[in-house]
Write a structure and sequence with these properties.
about 40% helix, 5-stranded mixed β-sheet, hydrolase, alpha/beta, GDP phosphatase activity, Nucleotidyltransferase, domain 5, UDP phosphatase activity
């Protein structure tokens, strides 16, 4: 082949360089994409130390190194009784209850990876009550639990910021996050406006929480004390969240029992009880067990309810017999709500500022159980009148008629649905759901598409944004990889084609010159 003109020589050199660079580019972006996509998973354990039980949850998410919050999913859950609040004076016994379920939960995680799995323990209203009774022993319990959990091989942080008392407002706030995450309102791919989020109504054993995104924030600092600014997946939300300690279903029911005992002579046993169906008789219990809570007696109860029940001398054991009187039961319940004191309007009850409820709500835990029984197969679209009529009908139905429809093991639970129904309706009224139309905005249910609703999921979703990633910090999403691949491949094809054309053209010229010489 003869000497090419200088211009063609430069063109060939440039095309050759571009071919080499495009091949290198293809190799590099393929390698980077492969590494970027090789993202592992991360796990964490959350122990929800509630007032009646401890729930252990194992969570998992994609370990994206550039995440703000992770797409957290619950992969396993277990529940153990008694709650850790029962071990304030036997702290080593508390870990003994948790140890077996915890070991089973992490059994599927390789031992060499367990040290990277953080464990969180957050105690809620049950422990907040114990803190009122015995602060030092309650705090000691957390330290003993931390030392016990060190034996699990999991990542137990020291100092133990991951082991703490969760405030009532935090409990409500994380419940709100859980509801909106499960309902796909706030996820990695979707962040709806505040007006389209779903409010959260949680009724536990010792406290109840209401959390929602109001239309506007109040000007008063005192009124805004229950407002929280929360950033999730890059979007910011202003959420109102308030918790009422002692207004959980178990503690409030105990208070009603104590009030009825205190107003009855010890000579009248069993005691007539309006909140049980007519003819239902409870088993005998130690009378002191109804008066041993900070929600019944003591300074906190007096501050919250203004009047405490007093156990009369002579009461040793107590037994109740139902009279099925919903009006009398409701009066006793309503007396525990202070609707007259309201320093900054509007208020829910007990002088607590609460903006007017707006939007849709999800009611779960204690709110949902009685509704599932009274309205099997229905979870939303209720009116207040419809629910009240169903509750009243259940209360006045003689127990012998109801007992024949439920198994022996469920009878003690079902018998409480008269009180539960009256309490749920009264509580929701006091939280601002006073009309039939407002009730229609509530959907009741303890699960959403099979996922349990609790504060723990929201808590873990929030915490996932603070945990370091173990994945390589390379980011090449498919949306960027495919165009780059096409561009480099196109450059390669064009350059190779041009080289072939030029080389072919030069060969033809060379052949033509040779023929001319002959």
């Amino acid at each position: 082949m003869g000497c090419f003109p200088e211009k063609r020589r430069k063109t060939l050199t440039l095309l050759t360089v571009l071919v080499v660079l495009s091949i290198l580019g293809l190799v590099i972006i393929c390698v980077v994409f492969g590494i970027a996509q090789a993202i592992g998973t991360k796990n964490a354990v959350v122990i929800d130390a509630g007032s009646s039980s401890s729930k252990l949850s194992l969570y998992q998410w994609k370990d994206d190194p550039f995440r703000t919050n992770a797409l957290v999913q619950q992969v396993m859950q277990d529940k153990v009784k008694p709650p850790i609040s029962a071990f304030v004076h036997d702290p080593f016994g508390a870990y003994g209850v948790l140890e077996g379920p915890l070991n089973r939960m992490v059994a599927g995680i390789p031992e060499n990876k367990r040290s990277t799995v953080p464990v969180y323990l957050a105690a809620t209203a049950g422990m907040r009550l114990e803190l009122l009774k015995d602060p030092l022993s309650t705090l000691d319990l957390f330290d003993v639990l931390r030392r016990g959990l060190l034996k699990s091989g999991l990542d137990v942080e020291y100092p133990n910021e991951r082991f703490r008392m969760l405030s009532g407002s935090e409990e409500g706030l994380y419940g709100w996050v859980s509801v909106n995450n499960i309902l796909d309102k706030i996820t990695a791919s979707t962040q709806v406006s505040s007006e389209r989020t779903i409010g959260s109504l949680d009724l536990g054993g010792a406290s109840t929480q209401i959390s929602f995104a109001p239309r506007q924030r109040p000007d008063s600092e005192k009124a805004a004390v229950d407002y929280y600014s929360l950033k999730l997946f890059g979007a910011r939300y202003e959420v109102y969240s308030h918790s009422f300690l002692c207004y959980g279903k178990d503690q409030f029911e105990k208070r009603v029992h104590a009030l009825i005992i205190s107003s009855t002579s010890p000579s009248q046993n069993p005691i007539p009880h309006p909140c049980f169906p007519s003819g239902y008789t409870t088993s005998s219990k130690d009378a002191n067990s109804f008066f041993d809570s900070p929600c019944i007696t003591g300074a906190y109860a007096e501050k919250t309810f203004s009047k405490n029940p007093i156990k009369q001398p002579g009461w040793t054991t107590v037994q109740f017999v139902g009279t099925g009187n919903p009006d009398a039961c409701r009066r006793t319940i309503e007396e525990q709500f202070n609707k007259t004191y309201c320093p900054t309007s509007p208020c829910s009850f007990n002088g607590v500022y609460q903006p007017s409820v707006s939007g849709a709500f999800r009611a779960y835990s204690g709110f949902s159980y009685v509704m599932a029984y009274l309205f099997a197969g229905k979870s939303t679209g209720f009116t207040k009148t419809e629910v009240m009529n169903a509750v009243r009908k259940f209360c006045v139905t003689p127990w012998n008629e109801t007992a024949g429809t439920v198994g022996p093991s469920e009878q003690s639970i079902v018998a409480k649905y008269c009180f539960d129904g009256l309490y749920v309706t009264t509580l929701l009224e006091n939280m601002g759901f006073g009309t039939d139309e407002q009730w229609k905005t509530i959907t009741f249910g303890d699960k959403i598409d099979g996922a349990s609703v609790s504060w723990a999921l929201g808590y873990m979703l929030d915490q996932s944004g603070y945990l370091p990633s173990d994945s390589p910090k390379l980011n090449l999403p498919v949306a960027a990889f495919v165009p780059l691949l096409v561009i480099f491949f196109a450059i390669l094809v064009v350059c190779v084609t041009m080289l072939i054309v030029i080389m072919h053209h030069e060969k033809e010229k060379e052949a033509f010159h040779e023929d001319s010489e002959h």
